[in-house]
Design a protein that fits this description.
The chain is mostly beta strands. The protein contains three helices and 38 strands.
């Protein structure tokens, strides 16, 4: 397949010999090569990866190799892989690597995406470029544009953000898995509706971005939840954190997520009020009902100035905070469980943090916070799982009522105005935190302590728990799940 490529060669200078270049001067036009081939159109695709020398010295590539024995092949400057080298790139010149992927049309039960990596080595340094090609019959969204971020003090090598803008009023259904590569953007005044039972998969650093004024309606059912997860399906990856980036929701719209499972991301859901961040105003609302967020390598639920209304919310096992509410906003959690028993690294962040400010560059901006945590549990394996901070430039109001807390002995003070009814450091005796089962025990500290009036006042939202169990009318339990009585 590569015979016609053998005539390609690098442009070379006939002038004075350039000096030795730096690896930092080697630019890649992308860090992931995704082949636009789907299961129903199997065959061979060709993609081109461009390596560019942006410096003043000659760069010598010692070796280019495929890391795996895979469906991929390459040809660099007329030299076929799986291992090729060495190559010289003069200042201002480029090296083109031609890549192919061939799939077996009789492959049977294939993965969603076949993956490999191309390793480029230079003077003891290495760069990996991810290679990926679709493997199943699914609905694939591939990036068709990029945002390029130049080098900066905090990002010395710069970065590339691949993205695609989704058609307005798009609907996803359960008939096929959805696979997102790069950032998929729901643009202003547009909406994405996801129907019950839909499986949404994100490749590598993929994300769903609900831009300002857009809406997400992820409307699962108790017996047909919507699942957001990575593309690696083998059992060994089923609960592996950090496989994809996040669901990012901006202000100006009203989004709803019900009966959803969000797992194995870097950040599960992030809500950003861009209006507050850039000095303007504009409301934004995210409603979460019967939602579970788990196994995030960073934060489970993270907001900067977005309004949140949540019931039967379970957020657990995250590398940093389970929930962090910053830059104010109106936030209400009812019958929710925020728990963190992360054991993959040393966690220094508490389960829950909240504040009325955020950093924007070198500046701090403030916005009023109104937080209510009702009939809920905030617990974990650290000495204290609750922290907050505030500045005088904006209002700072919070209430914890009928809440089981893991907190240090000096705060909060029970029976105070902000903590009228809390229980501190009494174990809920969750069923099995290692397996992610956060049903409290009937003899634990969460049993029979919830305020029943909250349930009777909101029967459509709170009459049943996260798993569909009936809540006691007279003595409901704290948290997202009712114990087995």
């Amino acid at each position: 397949m590569f015979g016609f490529l053998t005539g390609f060669s690098l442009l070379t200078s006939c002038l004075e010999e350039p000096g030795i270049g730096n690896f930092a001067d080697l630019r890649f036009d992308r860090d992931t090569v995704f082949f636009d081939t789907v299961f129903t159109q199997l065959g061979t695709a060709t993609e081109v990866l461009k390596l560019y020398n942006s410096g003043g010295g000659r760069i010598q590539i010692d070796e280019i190799r495929l890391l795996g024995n895979s469906v991929f092949r390459f040809n660099a400057n007329g030299v076929p892989g799986p291992i090729a080298g060495s190559f010289f790139i003069d200042p201002g010149d480029s090296l083109y690597v031609f890549l192919e992927a061939t799939l077996d049309p009789n492959g049977g039960n294939t993965p969603l995406i076949f993956e490999d990596s191309l390793l480029i080595s230079f003077a003891g340094q290495q760069k990996k470029v991810v290679l990926a090609v679709p493997g199943q019959d699914a609905l694939y969204y591939l990036p068709n544009d990029t945002l390029v971020f130049p080098p900066s003090p905090g990002n010395p090598n710069g970065s590339i953000l691949p993205y695609r803008i989704l058609d307005c009023s798009t609907e996803w259904r359960a008939d096929r898995p959805v696979v997102v590569v790069g950032y998929l953007v729901v643009d202003s005044n547009c909406s994405l509706t996801i129907h019950p039972g839909t499986q949404v998969h994100f490749f590598n650093n993929g994300a769903l971005w609900i831009y300002r004024g857009a809406q997400l309606q992820a409307l699962g059912e108790a017996d047909q939840p919507i699942v957001f997860q990575g593309t690696r399906l083998p059992l060994a990856w089923a609960e592996q954190p950090g496989q994809w980036d996040r669901i990012l929701i901006n202000d100006g719209g009203s989004s709803n997520m019900r009966h959803c499972l969000i797992k194995n991301a870097f950040i599960g859901v992030q809500g950003d009020h861009l209006g507050k961040l850039n000095g303007s105003s504009g409301p934004g609302q995210l409603n979460l009902h019967n939602v579970e967020i788990r196994n995030c390598s960073g934060i489970g639920l993270y907001t900067r100035g977005l309004n949140i209304d949540a019931s039967n919310l379970l957020v657990h096992n995250c590398g940093q905070y389970s929930a962090a509410f910053t830059l104010g906003g109106s936030i209400r959690l009812r019958h929710s469980t925020l728990a963190n028993y992360w054991n993959r690294s040393n966690r220094t962040s508490p389960t829950l943090f909240f504040s009325n400010y955020a950093l924007a560059g070198s500046n701090s901006i403030a916005a009023a916070l109104n937080l209510q945590v009702l009939n809920s549990i905030v617990y974990g394996n650290k000495e204290s799982e609750l922290e907050w901070d505030s500045v005088a430039a904006a209002g700072f109001s919070y209430l914890f009522d009928h809440v089981l807390l893991k907190a240090s002995d000096d705060y909060p003070t029970p029976l105070s105005t902000r903590f009228p009814m809390v229980w501190r450091n009494e174990s809920p005796n969750f069923s099995n935190t290692n397996s992610g089962n956060y049903q409290p025990a009937a003899n634990g500290a969460a049993a029979n302590r919830a305020q029943p009036g909250l349930v009777s006042a909101n029967p459509l939202l709170l009459r049943f728990d996260l798993r569909g169990r009936n809540r006691s009318e007279s003595l409901p339990d704290l948290g997202a799940e009712e114990s087995e009585n």
